[in-house]
Amino acid sequence: MALDLSGKRAIITAAGGGIGRQTVKLFTEAGAKVFICDIDEAGLEATIAEHDKVDGMVADVSDPDAIDTLFERADGYLGGLDFMINNAGTAGPTSPIEEISLEDWNACVTVNLTSAFLCTQRAIPRIKEAGGGGIVNLSSAAGKFGFALRSPYVASKWAIVGLTRTTALEAGPFGIRCNCIQPGPVEGDRITRVIQAKAKAEGVSENQTRDEMVSITSLRSFVPPTHISGMILYLCSDLGATITGQAISVDSGLEGLLN
Description:
Blueprint: E1 9-12, H1 18-29, E2 33-38, H2 41-49, E3 54-58, H3 64-78, E4 83-86, H4 102-130, E5 133-138, H5 151-171, E6 176-183, H6 189-202, H7 206-215, H8 225-236, E7 247-250
Parallel strand pairs: 1-2, 1-4, 2-3, 4-5, 5-6, 6-7
């Protein structure tokens, strides 16, 4: 057995950069054919241009109609589906609970949780038809720790764990496994934005916030995006064929989150 996806077909959301883009790279190198989406048109086009067996479309996964179109387009390109990677996410607001508007709460939860539910709902019949496969959701270290000033994000990422485990129970008899990854701080634009927002909210420097985040990991380091995409590939390969219902941390030994 090996990390081989020859002949397999996957949909990966938010693949215009970061973890999603790295996952496309590894999947195509392993032989998979991939359909992707992102709200960033430039990032989407750049990812598609890097590979021969990739197509995609601009899509906002907070919009159910856009998700329907995504799957219709993916059906035409892939001709079936073996793996669904729910990677789309947003940081949401950085504020005390009493200052967060319902609009901001809903916007964060819709992207982080509801989109994964809607994509999973549409993916399962297709993966059943393929004879089995897998779904990988992106949770977060915030899905196992509390995180001050980030209540919508944290709530959505804890909920992803519940969605994952329930999906694994329901879909397992059909040969479909479902897992989620809980990354710690991952190097890239997203963690930079989180650091900026938290530093601003607390009136400290960005360097101080970054140093504090690094200090609470056992390895004293952030996580390269390739380490997350590598775990996604592993879970979808034959080597991950009996792993399901798990929330797997890839976080440099994160010991907690900053308060």
